[in-house]
Amino acid sequence: MHKQLRNVKFLCFMMVMLSFVEFAMLPPAYTYANNSSELAIQSLATGFRESKVVRQDGTVWAWGANEDGRLGDGTTDNKLYPIQLKGVTDTVEVTSGQSFTVALHKDGTVWSWGWNIYGQLGDGTTENKSSPIQVSGLTDVTAISSGAAHTLALKSDGTVWAWGWNQYGQLGVNITDSKLVPVQVEGLTDVTAISSGLSDGAAVKRDGTVWVWGNNRSAESSMGTLGSEEWKSVPVQLSGLTNVVAVAEGKYTTAVKRDGTVWAWRWNQNGKNENKTVPFQVKGLKDIIAVSGGRGHNLALNKDGTVWAWGGNFTGQLGDGTTDERTDPIRVSDLTDIIAVTASSADHNLALRKDGTVWAWGANEAGQLGDGSTESQRYPVQVNFAGGDGKPALIGGATFNDVTGHWAESMISWAYANKVIDGYQDGSFKPDNNVSEAEFLAIFLKMFGVQAAGSNNHWADAFYTFSEAHHFPIQGIGNAAELRSAFINRETVAGIIAAADGTHLLKDEAIQYLLDKGYSSGKTSATVVGYKGRDLLTRAEAIQFVKNVKDKGMTLK
């Protein structure tokens, strides 16, 4: 009875989604990161109001929605910071559907856990699983992609396998019965890339052609039957598109050609719900190496490391600081050196930077941005990987792997010993990275015994409460998260230190105060000009300021 009731609820939910919001439950899109040993993160994935990353050590970390216990930590509390998923190891890629997760192991086997009413876990049963179980009979898998309740797997021999929900023929086996174990998608060979939609699938062959199957309402223009409720239960070739290397489902289904151009179908680029029967080139994009699709927006990654976005923007998911819809791609603000991107089915995004940091923006009602808040962000914010106490502390040690010989090495060791700082999960400190306002306040105030308190909003709330009470000249008052995450310059730091010392000065006067008190000797000389107030502060310089004021006996006024 319980199973029948949940089945009815799921089908009702699907019908509502298909009728009113196309692709409201899209599968997680993903791209591989550079598999460099210098990076702590090797791949990204996003699900419905949740985010996941796979680390180089094969562990999986997740944050965001957890009301159904999908994160496997024994609770149903949403997670505002990443936690490690227990019992999940040797992983290279993860993908999520509606309340279930599928993981690809480095040995080519596939494992899954979560909801299983349609056999989407692929273990031959319909029983839910709270811990990973192996998908039956699958080996030599190189890529995976999940829809609402089905999954596709690409094997090294170029064949595609599918299992789970099959009401619209999304398994590609010429019937519409759900499958509890993987079955081979008919007629597909020499496949190099796959992508799942809510209830459909797409594949790219080695010859650059694109093949599609499944629900024809959610992919009608790609199958050439406009206005029809029919579906295709076996793959058919998409006409008018060749030389494709990658494909991604989304409001627009997008494809990257070998020449770096991006092509789309399903919806017109003029922003109206007008289907396009023939793929069209997306304006203004070139040198693109990856694409990803969300519920109502798309992302494109340029080979120069910049990210471009277009489509819906009501939660700031385009990352341009506005909520204005964009029919043409616009560059996501402040993102450089990006090597992987993913857009989610719940209007948020992740990006992996070359230095190993993860950035997020867009919707955040379940904490899926991992910044310690539940506020949507119109600009990218850095994901704060949590320690055991749930704070945005980073994993470090007595000796960091990137400070030997650095000019601030001894000060960094001093700050670590005094519990002012921690390092990153890869054992580094990144002394020359710039510092946000929130990060500087945390470093500075922790030296004087001010500690972060638990908060359901932003991890630095305690530091901002103290700073506001002492009239520090800061920008992030009132939980303006985008301002808290903005890099701080040396001029602003001078004003903060002066205020902490009981003197409220700004700009050149604050700089001169620091020079006179001996709290700074400047950057190039002990003058206002040599102080270089407009330069952004680095992590090493932040430690230097803290050490200087402590050595001078400064106390908080």
Automatic annotation (TrEMBL):
<keyword id="KW-0677">Repeat</keyword>
<feature type="domain" description="SLH">
    <location>
        <begin position="395"/>
        <end position="458"/>
    </location>
</feature>
<dbReference type="InterPro" id="IPR009091">
    <property type="entry name" value="RCC1/BLIP-II"/>
</dbReference>
<dbReference type="Pfam" id="PF00415">
    <property type="entry name" value="RCC1"/>
</dbReference>
<dbReference type="InterPro" id="IPR051210">
    <property type="entry name" value="Ub_ligase/GEF_domain"/>
</dbReference>
<feature type="signal peptide">
    <location>
        <begin position="1"/>
        <end position="33"/>
    </location>
</feature>
<dbReference type="Pfam" id="PF25390">
    <property type="entry name" value="WD40_RLD"/>
</dbReference>
<dbReference type="InterPro" id="IPR000408">
    <property type="entry name" value="Reg_chr_condens"/>
</dbReference>
<protein>
    <submittedName>
        <fullName>S-layer homology domain-containing protein</fullName>
    </submittedName>
</protein>
<dbReference type="InterPro" id="IPR058923">
    <property type="entry name" value="RCC1-like_dom"/>
</dbReference>
<dbReference type="InterPro" id="IPR001119">
    <property type="entry name" value="SLH_dom"/>
</dbReference>
<keyword id="KW-0732">Signal</keyword>
<dbReference type="Pfam" id="PF00395">
    <property type="entry name" value="SLH"/>
</dbReference>
